Amino acid sequence: MAATRATVQLAALSPGGSGARVDGGPGALPLYRQAKRALMQAIESGGWPAGTALPSETRLSASLGVSIGTVRRAVDELVADHILVRHQGRGTFVAMHDAQRFLFQFFHVERSDGLRESPVVELLSFERLRAEAEAAEALRLKEGDAVWVAENRLSLQGRPVVHDRIVLSAQVFKGLTERRLRERPGTIYQLYQSGFGITVVRAAERARAVAADRTAARVLGVSPGAPVMQVRRTALGFGDRPVEYRVSTINTARHDYVHVLSRPEGTG
């Protein structure tokens, strides 16, 4: 099936889905990229919430006015981006956050011998504060805006390894409480998704070596001034909207920070 210009009918397939156009004219983006964008618009609009099954490739291709091969390539990219997930024999679904996704996409600390496991998380504090300059810039807030600040200790193999300081917009995360955070049944990103309709898609990170301050030293059980690794992360949602600002201080005496990089398409 081919079409040089067709109106996307995703709104008819997903309540709340927004319309888009696939344009095969001169200078237009490749059709599969336009199809990918249209699918993303339907997901971002809330038409397909997390865990929802996508319509069949046949139905999507008819709606988009493109070939099944074009739809499949668009879906393949969204799977690679962790936006969609395929379940053999069941279909393709909007990805949900779970412990496995957090472990392999967002948690990069593992023992030096390669052992990787989910950390045991202990909530140390939770309070409403005013955003400091660094966090405000990362979250696109004004300095002094209300934020939630949570501090966690993450342990691996019975040892404290990571001290996390997490900052969230109090306006975005209305209704967040210490109890909800402490008693959440899954990961914190699952809570964002199920409790607030916010999906973390990717994260931007900066890492550097620092000396442990008194707080990190106490939490991690190291001497003040001991060498540690500090990672500043801004978690991003759809449209690269900032969701969370996190400063992680990591004791790398027995653990490494491991991040597998994917090669951009078309590079040698």
Structural class of the secondary elements?
alpha+beta
Characterize the biggest β-sheet. 6 strands, antiparallel
As a whole number of angstroms, the C-alpha radius of gyration is 21 Å
User: What is the CATH architecture annotation of the largest domain?
Assistant: 3-Layer(aba) Sandwich
Helical residues, percent: 25-40%
For the terminal residues, how far apart are their CA atoms? 32 Å
Spatial strand order of the main sheet: 6-7-8-11-10-9
Determine and state the CATH class of the largest domain: Alpha Beta
The CATH topology of the largest domain corresponds to Chorismate lyase
CATH H-tier superfamily of the largest domain:
Chorismate lyase-like
Number of DSSP strand runs: 12
Q: Please trace the helix and strand order, writing H or E for each element.
A: EHEHHHEEHEEHEEHHEHEEE
- Our count of helices gives 9
**Poorly predicted tracts of residues:** 1-9, 14-21, 263-268
**Shape call:** globular
Provide the domain count.
2
Explain the overall architecture.
It contains nine helices and twelve strands. It has helices spanning 10-13, 31-44, 57-64, 68-80, 99-106, 133-139, 178-182, 188-196, 214-220, and strands spanning 5-7, 21-23, 84-87, 91-94, 109-111, 120-130, 146-156, 159-169, 202-211, 227-236, 242-250, 255-257. The protein folds into two domains: 5-94, Arc Repressor Mutant, subunit A (Orthogonal Bundle), CATH 1.10.10; 99-257, Chorismate lyase (3-Layer(aba) Sandwich), CATH 3.40.1410. By secondary structure, it is an alpha+beta fold. A hairpin with a 3-residue loop joins β3 and β4. A six-stranded antiparallel beta sheet has the order 6-7-8-11-10-9. It has a two-stranded antiparallel sheet with strand order 1-2.
